[in-house]
From TrEMBL, chain A:
<dbReference type="GO" id="GO:0005968">
    <property type="term" value="C:Rab-protein geranylgeranyltransferase complex"/>
</dbReference>
<feature type="domain" description="Prenyltransferase alpha-alpha toroid">
    <location>
        <begin position="1"/>
        <end position="270"/>
    </location>
</feature>
<dbReference type="InterPro" id="IPR026873">
    <property type="entry name" value="Ptb1"/>
</dbReference>
<dbReference type="GO" id="GO:0004663">
    <property type="term" value="F:Rab geranylgeranyltransferase activity"/>
</dbReference>
<dbReference type="InterPro" id="IPR045089">
    <property type="entry name" value="PGGT1B-like"/>
</dbReference>
<keyword id="KW-0862">Zinc</keyword>
<keyword id="KW-0677">Repeat</keyword>
<comment type="function">
    <text>Catalyzes the transfer of a geranylgeranyl moiety from geranylgeranyl diphosphate to both cysteines of proteins with the C-terminal sequence -XXCC, -XCXC and -CCXX.</text>
</comment>
<protein>
    <recommendedName>
        <fullName>Geranylgeranyl transferase type-2 subunit beta</fullName>
        <ecNumber>2.5.1.60</ecNumber>
    </recommendedName>
</protein>
TrEMBL record, chain B:
<dbReference type="InterPro" id="IPR002088">
    <property type="entry name" value="Prenyl_trans_a"/>
</dbReference>
<dbReference type="Pfam" id="PF01239">
    <property type="entry name" value="PPTA"/>
</dbReference>
<keyword id="KW-0460">Magnesium</keyword>
<keyword id="KW-0677">Repeat</keyword>
<dbReference type="GO" id="GO:0004660">
    <property type="term" value="F:protein farnesyltransferase activity"/>
</dbReference>
<dbReference type="GO" id="GO:0004662">
    <property type="term" value="F:CAAX-protein geranylgeranyltransferase activity"/>
</dbReference>
<protein>
    <recommendedName>
        <fullName>Protein farnesyltransferase/geranylgeranyltransferase type-1 subunit alpha</fullName>
        <ecNumber>2.5.1.58</ecNumber>
        <ecNumber>2.5.1.59</ecNumber>
    </recommendedName>
</protein>
<comment type="similarity">
    <text>Belongs to the protein prenyltransferase subunit alpha family.</text>
</comment>
<dbReference type="GO" id="GO:0005965">
    <property type="term" value="C:protein farnesyltransferase complex"/>
</dbReference>
Length: 292, 347
């Protein structure tokens, strides 16, 4: 389910959102409905999960088919996963992670049901995940990691609570992710990876500090990770491409103003026009789209 | 996807002892959008998994089947879930399961499920002691594994036993001895010292802070170009509300080039260990720290800010603008970077 969302969003950013058959895609999404749980799983006959439920909602929105969803049941599923501390579990298995907090907040927002969330409890948990370096971890006490920074910052953006972010410290930490070759890493002393072009960049865009990284070097890095024979983008130059790194490389390029791409909303990682039409656009800033 | 290492096992569809189970194919109702080319072994095993899930069977052979699937695809979270439920239903010996997990965790260090399953097991066995050793061993394989460090923190916090906490400082020192730039180890240290309550022996918080400042300064002296150590230093100062200005004497030598050969050595100041002889100076992080000190001391000194910005440019590093909140200061620095012209200042 996630891979279908990544593929559809990647195609949409390139202006070819209709390249895959719409009905087949919607049928696939609906075939992943877990009737027992009242939500979506990653694949037919698997158990429902927040990650796949969010992706399903995003896909159906982009395909103009949200009416196929039993929203009340999905709402119940999502809200049932919040723990007393404010964190969300991903499913009945109980694994907790700030990624799931973001999935819940994002999904509720897209469904127009954010008002059903216990916002203070959610924000309290995110606050507990904030570390001494300004970053956020996957649970309270965990090391700051760029992907967790993205989910926490984006969730706070949706909840209009960016005041919870220590912006000077975090933006500096994010800008320090850029390595000499232009690529971004996820935490100090680790290797660069194209997917951080999205996690780091979107957080900076949300906090309006995209100028704090060298955009032309990053752009060159992402482009060099393309496979010019088979297409697609890999995690770093020379490696095999995959859909995951392709969407996040494209998302990064869109935020950097690469010509010919569609505007992307970094909070929701979906085409900006869709989010605007829902009235959900927040105060993020991408770089100006170049014409050539 | 891994195949079992031992001699080839027959498919479940060929095993007479599984003949009573009705295997269920994956795509019964839908034509796949992007079909995955499963191996025969994986398709066979998951067909039988769907079969026993439908019938609700929880038996020893289900444990064998789920282990087979997990070895081929450690991300199959439904198989993990069902395995756990089966273990509980059968009241299986969990220590045996943990031993199996020891092997799988090392093989699949970056899979969420293998760690979550372990948490569930340890919540049942309530025996955290051996876990710390297991974690230390798996960190030998991948010293910065995010899941492993997080699991260590969970063990410590969940059981909150002084005996478990007592070795942490030694553990972190040894990790940093192997790699002083291990960000996970630095983060863990902050967690243990400042974010997990006050344990017996650490009640004198001033002494703790002095110890930590001495520790991080010594590590910076050995290897100044270490972002994690400087972040840690900043973190300690922010947490204890000590002004950055108090560190000026320590930081200053790191923000300058190495003194020329033949310069008589400074008198040793225990509060301010000097950079080791082989360090590459000036150290960028120290220059940035000096900029923060200037800002804290009443900032706005554009000349100093430009000078610092030029030094950063010269070091070939991407400028970080944290200290230069004023956009006019920033544009002056960008101008300097782009034209090599710093106006009336000498570089």
């Amino acid at each position: 389910m996630n891979a279908v969302y990544w593929g559809l969003t990647a195609l949409s950013i390139m202006g070819h959102g209709d390249a895959l058959d719409r009905d087949e895609m919607v049928d696939f999404v609906m075939s992943c409905w877990d009737e027992e749980a009242g939500a979506f799983s990653a694949h037919p006959d698997h158990d429902a999960h927040l990650l796949s439920t969010l992706s399903a909602i995003q896909i159906l929105l982009m395909q103009n088919a949200l009416d196929r969803v039993d929203i009340d049941r999905v709402l119940k599923f999502i809200l049932s996963l919040q723990k007393p501390s404010g964190v969300f579990a991903g499913d009945a298995f109980g694994e907790t992670d700030t990624r799931f907090v973001y999935c819940a907040v994002n999904a509720l927002s897209l469904l127009g049901k954010l008002h059903t969330l216990d916002v203070e409890k959610t924000i309290t948990y995110i606050r507990h995940c904030r570390n001494f370096d300004g970053g956020f971890g996957h649970v309270a006490g965990a090391e700051s990691h760029a992907s967790q920074v993205f989910v926490c910052v984006a969730a706070l953006a949706i909840l209009d609570r960016l005041d919870e972010v220590d912006q000077p410290t975090l933006c500096w930490w994010l800008s320090e992710r850029q390595r000499p070759n232009g690529g971004l890493n996820g935490r100090p002393e680790k290797l660069e990876d194209v997917c951080y072009s999205f996690w780091v960049l979107s957080a900076l865009a949300i906090l309006d500090k995209l100028a704090w990284i060298d955009s032309s070097k990053l752009e060159a890095f992402i482009l060099s990770a393309q496979d010019t024979e088979s297409g697609g983008i890999a995690d770093r130059p020379g490696d095999m491409p995959d859909v995951f790194h392709t969407i996040f490389g494209l998302a990064g390029l869109s935020l950097l103003g690469y010509p010919g791409l569609v505007d992307l909303d970094p909070v929701y990682c979906m085409p900006a026009s869709i989010i605007e039409n829902l009235g959900l656009r927040k105060g993020w800033k991408a770089l100006q789209r170049r014409t050539s | 996807m891994d195949l079992p290492a031992e001699e080839e096992q027959p498919l479940y569809s060929q095993r007479p002892e599984w003949a009573d189970v009705v295997p269920l194919e994956q795509y019964e109702s839908v034509a796949p959008l992007a079909p995955i080319f499963y191996t025969d072994e994986y398709r066979d095993a998951t067909n039988y998994f769907r079969g026993i899930v439908k019938s609700g069977e929880m038996s020893p052979r289900v444990l064998e089947l789920t282990e087979n699937i997990i070895r081929q695809n450690p991300g199959h979270y439904s198989a993990w879930q069902y395995r756990y439920k089966t273990l509980m239903a059968l009241k299986s010996p969990l220590d045996d399961e943990l031993q199996l997990m020891d092997e799988l965790a090392i093989k699949h260090l970056k899979t969420y499920q293998v760690w979550h399953h372990r948490r569930l097991l340890v919540q049942q066995t309530r025996n955290p002691g051996p876990e710390l050793e297991f974690i230390a061993n798996s960190l030998q394989v991948d010293t910065k594994n995010y899941h492993t460090w997080s699991y260590r923190q969970w063990i410590l916090a969940y059981f909150n036993d002084d005996a478990l906490w007592s070795h942490e400082l030694d553990f972190m020192e040894s990790m940093l001895e192997s790699d002083v730039r291990n960000n996970s180890a630095w983060h863990h240290r902050f967690f243990v010292v400042f974010q997990s309550g006050v344990r017996s022996g650490d009640e004198d918080r001033d002494a703790v802070v002095r110890r930590e400042l001495a520790f991080v300064k010594e590590r910076i002296a050995i290897a100044p170009n270490n972002a994690s150590a400087w972040n840690y230093l900043r973190g300690v100062l922010d947490h204890t509300k000590i002004s950055y200005c108090e560190l000026q004497a320590f930081v200053l030598p790191y923000s300058l080039p190495q003194p020329p050969l033949g310069t008589p050595p400074e008198v040793v100041d225990l509060e301010s260990p000097l950079p080791s002889k082989n360090s590459q100076l000036p150290c960028v992080a120290a220059v940035e720290f000096m900029a923060d000190i200037h800002e804290a001391a009443g900032g706005g000194d554009l000349v100093k800010a430009t000078e610092v910005g030029y030094v950063l440019y010269e070091l070939g590093k991407y400028l970080t603008y944290r200290s230069f909140g004023n956009p006019w200061q920033m544009s002056t620095i960008l101008y300097a970077r782009d034209t090599g012209n710093t106006g009336s200042r000498n570089p």
